Amino acid sequence: MNGAPARVGVVVPALDEEQALPLVLAELPRARAPVVVVVDNGSRDGTAEAARRSGAHVLSEPRRGYGSACLAGIAWLTRGDGLVPPLAGEDVIVFLDADHSDYPEELGSLLAPLDEARAELVLGSRILGGADRRALLPQAWYGNRLACLLMRVLFGARYTDLGPFRAITAAALARLEMGDTGFGWTIEMQLKAWSGGLRVLEVPVRYRARIGRSKITGTVRGTLRAGAKILGWILAWRVSTWLRAWARRPGPRSRARSRSAATRDPAGSRASTGRGRRSPPRPPGWGAASRPRCRAQ
Question: Which of the listed CATH numbers 3.90.550.10, 3.30.565.10, 3.40.50.300, 1.10.760.10 matches domain 8-241?
Answer without folding.
Answer: 3.90.550.10
